[in-house]
Structure formats: C-alpha cells, structure tokens
Specification:
- It holds the Pfam family HTH_1.
- Residues 8-65 form the HTH lysR-type domain.
- One of its GO terms (molecular function) is DNA-binding transcription factor activity.
- Keywords: DNA-binding, Transcription, Transcription regulation.
- The longest helix is centred in the N-terminal third of the chain and has 30 residues, at 66-95.
- The termini are far apart.
- Strand 1 and strand 2 (63-64) form a beta hairpin.
- The protein contains 13 helices and 12 strands.
- The protein is 49% helix and 18% strand.
- The chain is α/β, with parallel strands linked by helices.
- The chain folds into 2 domains: 10-93, Winged helix-like DNA-binding domain superfamily/Winged helix DNA-binding domain (Arc Repressor Mutant, subunit A); 99-321, D-Maltodextrin-Binding Protein, domain 2 (3-Layer(aba) Sandwich).
- The radius of gyration is 27 Å and the shape is elongated.
Length: 321
C-alpha cells in the first residue's frame, strides 16, 4: 500500500523559514515571538513528519541541506497562499459574497470597462477593478492578488493559467486631420519620411510592440517625444508636430481628439496587431470569465466599433476583430 505523506504544518513551516532567515533557533524565536524550545520542537516535528533532516547540523550557523533548500524554495508561496486564503475568507464573511478582483490594461479599463461594470451592476456580484500595465497585472495574477486579468500579452508560462483570446486590433498611423485635408494622397510612407514619430514610452507593452512594428516597416525616426498616455501623444499630433502609431481602442480612450485627427492604414502584418487576452486560474471564476468574454465582444460590436467608424471613416474594416 502506498504511503500517504502527512500534510505540512504551516506553523512548523513558518519556524523553518525563520531559522533559515535568521541563521539560528534563537533568532527565529525572537522573530516569531515564541520560545526557542517551541521553535526546536516545530523543526523536530517537521523533520519527523517528512521522514528526513532539513539542516546540516555540522555547520554553524545551521544551514538547510538539499532537502531543506527544496522546502525553502516551495515554502514562501505556500505561506503566502495560506495568508491569502485567510484574508479572502475574512472578506467573504464580512460581505456575504466573495468579490472578484478584476485587473485590466488602461485602454480597456477606460473604454470597455464602464460598459462591463454597467452590465453586471444589476447582479449581486461584487467587483474590485484595477487598471495598469500588462507586466504588473500578470504578476498580480500570478501572486494571487488578482482573480481575472485582461492583458495585451501573455507572459505567464504557467499551465494553471487559462488564456482566452478576447479580440485584436490593428495599428494605424495617426495624423492631424488638417494635414490629410491638404494632401489627399498622403500615406504612411510620406509621413515617415517627412515627420518624426511620436511614441509611446518604451516601458509600456504597446510602446515595445509599436517599436518592433515600426522597425519592420523600415520607419527609422529619431526618438524625440515619448508619452505614457494617448492624450498628450494626440495633442502633439493634432498640433502637426509629428505623426503617431496607435490603435482604435487607444484612440477611443482619447476620443475628445477624434475631430482633430485622421488615421491611415498600415500594411497588414502579424506584428501590426495588438491582441487582448483574458487570464484566470484553471477551475476558478470560470463563469465570470465567460461572462466577461461575451460582454466584451458585445460592447465592441454594438458600441465602440460603430462609433469609431463614424468618427474615423478611414479606419480599416478589420481594425477591431
């Protein structure tokens, strides 16, 4: 019959981590606010339950051996998860229902986000909405600080994370509407030859994606202006100080500039699109994730896409799909 290993005692695990961090039973006892004998007993019980030793007793101070190092590597996330479970249970007991912690990139939060909140506002579900950059949101999801996230890049090589494609949008060249009125035959090649490219900052995912696409197109514009947000970027475009490469959703986010700008299509390419994904942990929040996918596509098809087509008739038909 196969031996069943006993579950690890979390208090003993905390004592083990404290000894590793402080280098002694005495230091661990001070850190945890318990007696030294309590720490010694916890370590002895942990080793007994697991049927192995965790420290090299010949070294001074005691250092974890191979088994101890393996446990130390796994212990941190385990303790963090246990603490998160405790917090979430407390939250649920106070509210009567577990809130969904929903994170999304800024352009999604500012455009699709309000419609999603409006659509689910009639239900009893509680939603805590975060916005930010894709790398930060992905890390928050991995660290269980978020339950569901909408990102523009999948950076988590984690089989426990489900990645659902939401939609994609094409990069387009953006120019002052007055310039297009003056030169009906203006195209992106002429723009790139005559004007500087006004960029999103390279620390953002969209800035990095646009930079790759610009190099692919042979656009070699010196770095002069870079912005974190679309509003200041479009203010320079409308002032005819340069052209930009952006996306329909970003333009809709800064839609008060739509009367002052025009768009020109760029060559179709895999690098020429930005993809959105909905991420959540396998077996968790499946129903909510399905609801968000359905609502997002409905908002894009019924509200945002028709409004953009009216405001920017030059927008390619497949700009949002």
């Amino acid at each position: 019959m196969r031996r069943t290993d006993p579950p690890i005692d979390l208090r003993a695990l905390q004592a083990f981590i404290a000894v590793c961090e402080t280098g002694s039973m005495t230091g661990a006892a001070k850190q945890l606010g318990v007696s030294q004998s309590a720490v010694s007993q916890s370590i002895a019980a942990l080793e007994r339950d697991q049927g192995l030793t965790l420290f090299d007793r010949d070294s001074r101070p005691p250092r974890p051996n191979i088994a101890g190092r393996a446990l130390l590597e796994l212990a941190g996330p385990l303790i963090e998860h246990a603490q998160m479970v405790s917090r979430r249970i407390g939250d649920a007991s106070h509210t009567g229902r577990l809130p969904v912690r929903f994170g999304c990139v800024d352009s999604f939060a500012a455009t699709v986000g309000p419609e999603l909140i409006r659509a689910v506002s009639g239900s009893a579900r509680q939603i805590a909405l975060w916005s930010g950059l894709t790398p930060g949101l992905a890390k928050q999801l991995h660290d269980r600080e978020l339950d569901v996230a909408v990102c523009t890049q999948t950076t988590l090589n984690d089989p426990r994370i489900v990645e659902i494609p939401l939609f994609s949008e094409a990069f387009v060249a953006v120019v002052a509407r007055s310039q297009l009125a003056e030169r009906r035959n203006l195209d992106w090649r002429a723009l790139a030859a005559e004007m500087p490219l006004i960029r999103y900052t390279a620390r953002s995912v969209i800035g990095q994606q646009i930079e790759r696409f610009a190099r692919h197109l042979g656009i070699d514009s010196p770095r002069r202006y870079e912005f974190d947000a679309t509003d200041p970027l479009l203010s320079l475009v409308s002032a005819r100080l340069g052209f930009a490469i952006s996306t329909p959703l970003c333009l809709w986010q800064a839609r008060h500039y739509l009367d002052e700008i025009a768009v020109l299509p760029l060559p179709s390419s895999r690098l020429g699109r930005r993809d959105f994904f909905l991420l959540h942990r396998q077996g968790e929040w499946d129903e909510f994730a399905h609801e968000i996918v359905t609502l997002t596509r409905a908002v894009l098809d019924r509200t945002i896409q028709p409004a953009l087509a009216r405001a920017l008739p030059q927008l390619p038909e497949d700009a949002l799909r």
